[in-house]
Amino acid sequence: MTEETVLYRGLDQTGDYVEYVYVPGKAEESEKEEEDQGPTLRRTVLPVPQESPTSSSLSRTIDFLQGRRVLVINSVTSGLNQSASVYERVVRPLLTGLGVSHEYVPTRNASTISDTAAALTAGQEEEDYLVIIFGGDTSLSEFVNALPSGSGGDSSSGSGRVRRGRIDLVLVPTGTGNAISASSIGGGKNAIAKTLAALFHSSASEDVAAAATAAAAPTTGTFVPLPNFRVEFPPGSYVASAAAPGADASADTPPRRLEFHAVAVVSWALHAALVADSDLPEYRPLGVARFRKAAELNLARDQRYSGEITLLPSSSSASSATSDQSNSSIKLTGDASTHSYVLFTLVSQVEPGYLISPSTHYGGATADNGSNSARPSLYFVRIPFTLPNNANNAELARLVTLPYQAGAHVTEPNVDYFAVNPSGSDGTGDNGDASHDKDDSYNEDVAGIITATPGESPQRWCVDGQIVVVPDAAGPVVVHGARYGIATVDWDLYILV
């Protein structure tokens, strides 16, 4: 049952000591969209506690909010279409009550989020933003990948660029999978309320960049440098139409490699196929259950994906039962070059309860082989095509359900699971403590190279929920090591966890 949640307790613009409470609606209880049954915000005036700040002072939360340009982006068609009611009934009146002005941008077409990010400008003085995104991982990814870059510097290396301030990102989980939310603040029916409480609670305003260097997950309600990893697709690759995933979309064939900064996952084979097929019109109303329907659809057909994979694990002890190792790399070739499931992940859960990477602490960091450098953990998960007792994909179906059992798949002998941040690459980017003065994070070492076997049909890849089509024999897909921040954009990027 969704509970009432205190979002804010302190002074508001009236000078009263108040409590704002998130009251869930019936739609959240039933996980179905019901008209006029969205959440509401309850304001209560409380006695001023002795330890409270004086009525003439503002709370730390209000100082934090008023010290930034606040932008609210609403992906109105994400998930079960509940974001509009959360904004209108809860977020807008709360921001108003705290005296915080903001700009509201509802999506009107497929490019609204990207266009909004691309239109951000940085003035001569440093300017900080708070960007609240109602949506899922794809919405965040679209925003991050469209930010303007290269002010006064080399856009390919980030050298000489001038920082224009900071963007604090808040992802309100109204999407479908909500992997980042499930892996940090927490998924489930209370996820939206918990996210808003983390934002409006005073602890959210603290500067806790140092939390990113901790080995454990940071405390809920803090901002940490944005984890991400770069992935390059060969020329001729293109983003499939969201209206017809997997169909023959018109190709945009730039003369360069298609590139993304992934913020959650990059996948090939079964995972990418089920994400693509889950966007079929008949599945969209099902919410997160649409992934299971798409999995059933794909498991009813052959799941052989052929191609060579070379990986650079972060520890020389990492191994694969089906690979050849040389020079600290893992090469999946020959008999080991057929796959059914291939995924690189920054998150522990790709949907609430689906624990794909038990070793991941989103927003925390790992040290590589005893080095002092801290960076996000990037894990690789693979299931080979050649499995025992796999008639009609029976064994594959069993393995892909094990993440629902507290990540039990990682103990299976036929599942490869290990970290792939390459040795010798700090991967921190310019927001990480270890490399704040460095400009080489954009050229971090390669973590993996995947080359599909020529003659295969066009390959579908998933990048944070977007589907990328790679033509036959186009060339390798290159995955780079994880890091904090993006060297080529004009702002330092942080995310609420």
Automatic annotation (TrEMBL):
GO molecular function, one term: lipid kinase activity
Domain of life: Eukaryota
Region entry Disordered, spans: 420-440
Protein's GO biological process: sphingosine biosynthetic process
DAGKc domain: residues covered: 65-215
InterPro entries named in the record: ATP-NAD_kinase_N, Diacylglycerol_kinase_cat_dom, Lipid_Phosphate_FormReg, NAD/diacylglycerol_kinase_sf
CC terms in the record's Gene Ontology section: cytoplasm; membrane
Protein name: DAGKc domain-containing protein
Taxonomic source organism: Geotrichum candidum
